[in-house]
């Protein structure tokens, strides 16, 4: 009998093992490493031969990886596009080579006929959930509420849409103002660096909205080094709900987290098998996810998978 998880060279169609080429953004955050682990474990469990590439958050590395997968004649290509633009040429090359492409995690601005489906979260909805919690927290105040925003990677779908959803909802309360908004590139280091600068420039920050836990955790270091109490002097809302973020939430240093589920591996492998078998898959598959306050975080922490 064929070893389902064999090394699977070449097209993979010979031995019946499906070969999947996957181009990952990088390893910039706890979310990303959880997402990578999910994809690698799911491929093994599904008997799919995974060729995995880490782009260190550079689009040119993702494009090179996709071209390499085309040359290797993989059966299916999947990737998480670091930014929304600049993919038309390489997606047309994959189409010309007859290799189906699956988008995971982040979206692209390209012509939808160039990929089979997009499996990932609704980032505008995540931004709305963050904004709604804040509007509810301050519904009775007439005082100004000064917000600083740590945006994700410039040009990335989650950064564009989490900003859009959040700013749309907080319009409900004219006292709420985003007094500064800057990219922290989804990393702790950059999140800390940008927050240090914001704390120097603004003495009246009430709220931090960070597009992911990692930038929020970096900002917390800056806030504490400035002698302020995160979660009290400055309310903090983040997105992801990875372990370190949930621990900070449980400890009261973050006030609210909107979950962004990184465990896309099993769904991706199901899609890959269907696509390879020529079966129809939905054009858009939205990830299921929730929100957490401090009490909920304390309750679920022991059983969190990531
Ligand atoms: C969201 C994902 C984002 C996470 C960040 O689906 O693309 O990228 O929110 C990660 O933590 O870096």
TrEMBL record:
UniProt keyword Transport present: yes
InterPro entries, sorted: Peripla_BP_I (IPR028082), SBP_2_dom (IPR025997)
Keyword Transport recorded: yes
Xref: Gene3D superfamilies: 3.40.50.2300
One cellular-component annotation, GO: cell envelope
Localization (cell): Cell envelope
Alphabetic keyword roster: Signal, Sugar transport, Transport
Highest taxon of the lineage: Bacteria
Domain Periplasmic binding protein positions: 21-280
Record-level Gene Ontology MF annotations: carbohydrate binding
Main location (coarse class): other
Entry's family note: Belongs to the bacterial solute-binding protein 2 family.
Name listed for the protein in its UniProt record: Simple sugar transport system substrate-binding protein
